[in-house]
Amino acid sequence: MVDRTDTKQAQPAASRRSFLKASLLGGAAVAAGTGVARAAGDPLITEIQDWNRYLGEGVDVAPYGKPSEFEAHVVRRSVPWLTADPVSSVNFTPLHELDGIITPNGLCFERHHGGTATIAPADHRLMIHGLVDTPLVFTMEDLKRFPRENRLYFLECAANGGMEWRGSQLNGCQYTHGMIHCVVYTGVPLRYLLEEAGVKTSGKWLLAEGADASAMTRSIPMEKALDDCLVAFKMNGEALRPEQGYPLRLCVPGWEGNMWVKWLRRLEVGDKPWAQREETSKYTDLLANGKARRHSWVMDVKSVITSPSPQAPVTHGKGPLVITGLAWSGSGTIKRVDVTIDGGRTWQTARIDGPSLPKALHRFYLDINWDGSELLLQSRAIDDQGLVQPTKNELRAARGENSIYHNNGIQTWHVNTDGVVENVEVS
Amino acid sequence: MLKFPKSAALSVLALTAFANPAFADGDIDAGEKVFKKCRACHAVGEGAKHKVGPELNDIFGRAAGGAEGYKYSKAMIAAGEEGLVWDADSLTEYLTNPKAMIKGTKMAFGGLKKDEDIDNILAYLKSFSTEQAAASEAASESAEGAEPAENATAAPAADKPATETALVVETSQGAFGLGRKAMPDEIAAWDIDIRPDGTGLPDGKGTVAEGEPIYAEACAVCHGDFGEGAGRWPVLAGGQDSLLKERPVKTIGSYWPYLSTVFDYVRRAMPFGNARSLSDDDVYALTAYLMYLNDVVEDEEFELSKENFTQMRLPNEANFIADDRLNEPHYAKGEEPCMSDCKPGPVQITARAQVIDVTPESEGEESSGGSID
């Protein structure tokens, strides 16, 4: 259990703790409180507060702007034991604190292999070469003269949930599901750039390469490259964040995040895949029989309840409770999300609210009246191809426990009578 | 489809626009940034010790090969004996192209391309040298008087006529007429990928025996003397017959399908923090040594070359299959999911994260929980 009181977030943690204590005191305290309130009232109302009397900060104190100081605990977090070195590592999006379907840029999880490259836009070049009529070099200025598109897409690391193959392990959806984000990209359709260079008929594959110290490379089939890939320079309206590939990244919608090459500098057209490190030794899925799947690009249909969850316990006691979460599929839109509160014996269809766009996050809600008893919460997504999110045991039966990647199994949260939530698995 | 008028087929891209004049006074903070390129091998500042390269405190005024306790190349020792002392001039020349100045130096670094970077790094190093005043003076002279060493496209000398250094480039012939034609040298500079069929392999060769000292110097600190991996750094050797076990050890010998991936990856991204610093022969020798560590070859005199490369096979090549996830029972059955009475009795909890307890910020955190890749 993540103990919020230990997280160096004194202010929010303290307020939550006192809130929780108050609710634990139960009905009697509330009744007594009501009496006091009638006599004296809530001091937050009856007494004039500092913010109501004294002036606040003027404009330009933070020319860029930043979240409220009371949201300081809403940050990306890492799991130090996962990787050898923070330069080639990963951190996680705090899904439990977010709502809607857009991930704020500063909270999008980071995964890079040679640190964050620092590249001035004027120094950046994108080269297209190989099996093309004319090998080309573009500056950022050139790229911004092509017609551009805006698209909302999720980006999920294929290893999201990879630590959970052998059983529930990390207590928080930030850690079990936080290698995902969803932002609006502005960019140039990759096919415009490829057409500009003129792909030869023998050109069936594309190698995308980053300019960072890992020179990240992935092979992408030409069919996908000409379909919906974008060469993006903006996210959620502003320039890409450095850790997301500033000034230029590739978007490969619905496919594993590792292919979305950041600091994109080179696209080579060829007639065969390149079998680079990240598509042979990594991002291949080892099965129980010793065989390994390669080119398993599409991200599977998946969902998770983000609240309540271990880092977002129920603090208000019984009564109205909003169960909410995210669903997505690399194959298209989410058609339906079902939620169970009894570990999968009975299911109810949740309400999807907000835009339903292909290869983007979907937000769902189930509004219940909690009776204060234990809950075993699960969500199950179904996409527009009819694919149903499998259970973890179904995945293990098919693949064993050594796959690392593509764990889209149904997640179970146990809510106890105090509202404390734990990552569990069920029969 | 949008139609854009084609712009002139030829335009002149004057690369002189990007050339910076030499800076007489480097910037210490900027130099600290440039030093990131060096710090994988060199330490400077309080308590700095020799690493792969010698520590750099008081480098100004130090005789070449003169740091006590560091094992220099013969070439560097000879240069010191011939009277080479490090100052702004000599360091500028060395950092521009180390191997051109000291043929046989151990320093694998290819050199700094920008005069500005060199000035800044000298300013940074100078701040750790006691001979600051003298060095500063020397740096100014150097900046004013020295003809900077150039590579093909960068930093032409300011006094040459612009027409000599301007490049005539062709614009795109595509629908938008955007971008310009990539030059062969530019493509060659970036196109370093190798495919399993050998496409892209450079000329070169190296033996197991030649790879061993390179590995010991550049790789063993993270990957272990025998490829066993230090800490959580990748294990490179061993693991044969582990793929069916609870914790498979996926190494070059036990898992990787193609040797070309080893060459490609080492050349593009290793050593960690000093990418592109190895010569092609070094990479052939290292690849040969990694084959040896994985028992793919057993002769220390085995030489890997462009010519014999594609004859080499790794043991696990046949075990990679196409993505057949959609044939798995849970997807293939295509049934409407159950909505009620889906399980016979009350549901039991079978596993709990609290028992394993590896979540950050909880007590008992330890590295027992598997990995992401």
Structure description:
Chain B: Residues 1-24 form the signal peptide. The complex is a heterodimer of chains A (427) and B (373). Chain A folds into two domains: 105-293, Oxidoreductase, molybdopterin-binding domain (Sulfite Oxidase, Chain A, domain 2, Alpha-Beta Complex), CATH 3.90.420; 302-424, Immunoglobulin-like, CATH 2.60.40. Helix content of chain A is 16%, strand content 29%. Chain A has nine helices and 24 strands. In chain A, the strands form six sheets. Chain A has a five-stranded mixed β-sheet. In chain A, strands 6, 7, 10, 11 and 12 form a five-stranded antiparallel β-sheet that branches. In chain A, strands 19-18-22-23-24 form a five-stranded antiparallel β-sheet, with no helix packed on it. Chain A is globular and about 80 Å long. In chain A, 52% of the residues are buried. Among the domains of chain B are: 28-127, Cytochrome Bc1 Complex, Chain D, domain 2; 187-311, Cytochrome Bc1 Complex, Chain D, domain 2, CATH 1.10.760. Chain B has helices at 28-34, 74-81, 88-96, 98-101, 115-126, 132-145, 162-165, 184-190, 208-218, 220-223, 259-269, 280-293, 329-332, 353-356; strands spanning 10-13, 167-170, 180-181, 205-207, 303-305, 320-321, 349-352. Chain B is extended. Chain B starts with 9 loop residues before the first strand and ends in a 17-residue tail after the last helix. The relative contact order of chain B is 0.10. β5 of chain A pairs antiparallel with β3 of chain B.
